[in-house]
Specification:
Layout (H helix, E strand, L loop, with lengths): L5 E6 L6 H11 L4 E7 L10 H13 L7 E6 L3 H8 L3 E6 L2 H17 L4 E6 L9 H9 L10 H19 L1
Parallel strand pairs: 1-2, 1-4, 2-3, 4-5
Length: 172
């Protein structure tokens, strides 16, 4: 029996977008097991807690036909340590535009120095999703805009609730 091909797709997923889900569904076709690793990443001042982000990703992944090979879990610390811990040989990164490439290229180089046994594979965003970013989705949601084209209905609902609560708090 050949060894299991395990890939890791890391991110803060604050919130998970249709672009993330596109990468997840495409990456799941490449591996025997895909681990979607939700980073604690408090330095980014997330809108949602780690538990909320995990639940959103798990909810969206449950709707995929390949959900049986996808595991959603949290991680903290160095990605290369996490990859070694779970036996992953590949880290998946999504690229939306040329501007993403420089940062991702540098990160891939650093990760290769930390653990040369783990490769980084880049998946290009599909043409429907190449402009979507969590940052833009949060900004649109915070300003009361319609985010339903960029996230699942459940995530859109959570964004509306979160930002309506924030507006109520800020009015007081």
């Amino acid at each position: 029996m050949s060894p299991q091909r395990i890939g890791v797709y890391p991110g803060s997923f604050d919130p998970v977008t249709n672009g993330h889900m596109d990468i997840i569904s495409r990456a799941a076709k490449i591996f025997d097991k895909l681990i979607v690793a939700v980073a604690l990443n408090v330095g980014k001042n997330p809108v949602f807690t780690l538990e909320e982000r995990l639940a959103m990703v798990e909810g969206d992944v449950a709707g995929l036909s390949l959900n049986h090979i996808i595991e959603v879990t949290a991680f903290e610390g160095l990605l290369m340590d996490f990859a070694k811990e779970v036996g992953a040989g590949v880290v998946i990164r999504g690229l939306r535009a040329v501007s993403d490439f420089e940062y991702e290229f540098q990160m891939a180089g650093m990760n290769a120095r930390l653990n040369p046994k783990v490769e980084t594979a880049f998946l290009m965003a599909s043409d429907r999703n190449h402009f979507i970013s969590s940052r833009f989705v949060k900004e649109i949601g915070a300003l009361g805009g319609d985010v339903s084209h960029f996230v699942s209905p459940k995530v859109a609902e959570k964004l509306v609730k979160r930002f309506s609560v924030n507006k109520a708090i800020n009015k007081d």
